[in-house]
Amino acid sequence: MAVFRSPVALAILGAALAVTLAPGEDPVAALGHRIEQGAAQLRFDPVYGYLPSLLEALHVPVESQMAVFSKTSIQLLRIEPSNPRVLYFNDSVAVGWVSGGFIELAAQDPALGMQYYTLQQRPDERLTRREVCLRCHTSGAALLHSVVSAPDGIPSNEADVDSRTPFRKLWGGWFVTGNAVPAVHMGNAVFAGSARRELTPSLDPKIALTPSSDVVALMVFAHQIHMMNLLAHPDNVNELADYLLFMDEAPLPAPIRGSSGFAEKFSSAGPRDHKGRSLREFDLQDRLMRYRCSYMIYTEAFDALPAATKAAVYRRMWRILSGEATGARPFSPDDRNAVVEILRDTKKDLPEYFQPLSR
Q: Which of 108, 150, 200, 289 sits at a 20 to 30 Å CA gap from 17?
């Protein structure tokens, strides 16, 4: 279902890495500068090329791996159910690779939004920003789609997805794995005409670093991509604030549980308040997060919002957290207080008017 269609792009030399990249603020550009200065070096693996070393250098966890088998990237001629594109991500970077192809990257610049790069899988390639990616990624927006996939991976009926999308409409064109996954999603299947054919996720070590396309990672990624786009183009302050607080989040039809270790690694990152609580803790029963405020509020992209925009976002958030405004999933008093208390301990520029509510 969800298909991250960002021809992510990075190109790097092996030993003598020459870099053709203008200075920037996103993590991929910063890595390129460290390589150019001799402060970092990428190792070339005979099977995966630069991929493992690149993930390590960008602090992207292997446990975040997801696999998409629909032909929905610049490398569409290589992608099919037997050779899916694997994706990895952290809070500001997404990395994609398909066996036999090159590495794609998308990184969020706090001021410029999403930036795209490619890295050819040869020991003598360069890091290059890919402006051509903006032909598909209008205004730099990252694209996350759910599709109906034919047996060869050709997609149709593309639909945008995020954390407001009902579970039954998610992950068309994707493999989905986990220890507990409600069966109503669109993943792990292709369609020949109107006939649905189930696929067994098969991620051979030659085409992926792990055997997982983790359900929790997929859910987090669906939330994060739209959040990145809203932060890059904060034209609708109310939507940005409401999305930060999961106001219109689609409920889970049943509990989910991953199997890759992603949930454990993600939730361990913090920051935590004086009671040990974190916005990165999961619920996974009927909603994604235990505390209903996005961890993306800690990103440099949020901090870089224009002062007036950020002030308006905070005002809208307070209207919701104080109980004045409601949405499709109203906050309980305990939920509201928990979010306020966590933010007061962990968000430095939080306005003073964010005060715990009387019970």
A: 108
